[in-house]
Amino acid sequence: MKKILSICFILTAVLLFSSSAMAANQPPDGSSIGGTVFKTSSNVTLIATSSETAYGVASKHINGDKGYSSADTSSEIVVTDSTKGHVPTAVTETGTPTFAEAS
Q: What distances in angstroms separate CA 19 from CA 13, 22, 42, 53, 80, one per listed residue?
C-alpha cells in the first residue's frame, strides 16, 4: 500500500514539475499534498519524468531488487528486476525505468 501511495504522490508531483521536455525530477521531501507533508522512506528513490503530453514515474529501495514504475500510457504498475544498490535514474514515456549504481 505504501508503494502505491508513493506512486500516486509521484503522479501528482509530475503535474507540478512537468516541463516541455522529458526531464527527470525527484520531488523534494516536505512537499505538501492535501495538507499532508510527504517524505520518502529511508533509502527510497522516486523519479518522475514528464513532458507536455506524457509522464513516467519509478521508485526503488536501494537495498531491494525490484523497481516499480508506471506511465500515462497504461494503468499498470510495472515491476522490474534490478540490482541491489542501484536506484532509478530515468523512466521513459512507456514506463520503462533505467537503473544505475547509487552514488
A: 12, 7, 28, 10, 26
Q: Which helix (H) or strand (E) holds 7?
A: helix 2-17
d(CA 59, CA 70): 10
pTM of the model: 0.64
97 bridge partner residues: 91
pLDDT in tens, the chain (103 residues): 566 666 656 666 555 554 444 455 555 666 665 677 767 778 888 888 888 888 888 999 999 999 999 988 888 898 999 999 999 988 877 788 888 898 8
Residues whose CB falls within 8 Å of the CB of residue 87, separated by 6 or more in sequence, listed in order: 45, 60, 62, 99, 100, 102
C-alpha cell at 56: 513516467
